[in-house]
Amino acid sequence: MAWDRNQMAARAAQELQDGWYVNLGIGIPTLVSNYIPEGIEVTLQSENGMLGMGPFPAENEIDADLINAGKQTITELPHTAYFDSATSFGMIRGGKIAMAILGAMEVAENGDLANWMIPKKLIKGMGGAMDLVAGVGRVVVVMDHCNKQGESKILRQCTLPLTGQRVVDRIITNLGVLDIEKGGLRIIELAPNVTRDELHAATEARIIE
């Protein structure tokens, strides 16, 4: 049985390490804040100018002025700090963020990432993705393994415009966990009841054993 969005986010939360500063991208990665393991203290950063994001609010806790980079309402913590986006990107470009957990449209077997646009479709801009993949210590991608047409999103080469070259370290999909290594991808973990053959069949990129 493949993981659903929340299970993927919970698995991604296992990548967090105590004391890290972490950026969560738009989409499934935002759910990671709800699954931070007990005993792990991490500080979540949002590139719109917030350090120390809490989990999503209950209905009676919603504050329309507290939003993440994806315009979703969030909560603050006792140590939360606010600042302008220039300071926020200074943290990212200065290597102060240990890890980014991002969504993607495509990932190539060499770690190339495409997650900001589909040609001929209306976009609002790249956002912080290009700076994040260039400036953080580790990049973990969380996404569905295949698109709505059933085609693999993990490819030999990306077909969409790149956000960054050779930047992805680990991919977490609804089928399992794969690491980018020299020569291809290595299977680290399979989702429950997903076989290696099923993951191979759903992956265009080369998988090394």
Keywords:
single chain, 209 residues, alpha/beta, nine-stranded mixed β-sheet, three-stranded mixed β-sheet, 4 helices, 12 strands
What does this structure look like?
With 209 residues, the chain is an alpha/beta fold. The chain has 4 helices and 12 strands. A 9-stranded mixed β-sheet has the order 4-3-2-1-5-8-10-11-12. A 3-stranded mixed β-sheet has the order 7-6-9, with no helix packed on it. β6 and β7 form a beta hairpin. The longest helix is centred in the N-terminal third of the chain and has 9 residues. 38% of the residues are buried.
Secondary structure: number of strands = 12
Helix content: 10-25%
Oligomer: single chain
**Cα Rg:** 17 Å
Shape: globular
Major sheet description: 9 strands, mixed
- Structural class estimated from helices and strands: alpha/beta
Mean pLDDT across all residues, rounded? 92
Counting H and I runs of at least 4 residues, what is the number of helices? Answer: 4
Strand content: 15-25%
- The spatial strand order of the largest sheet comes to 4-3-2-1-5-8-10-11-12
Order of helices and strands: HEEEEHEEEHEEEEEH
Q: How many angstroms separate the termini?
A: 22 Å
Q: In terms of per-residue confidence, which ranges show pLDDT below 50 for 5 or more consecutive residues?
A: none
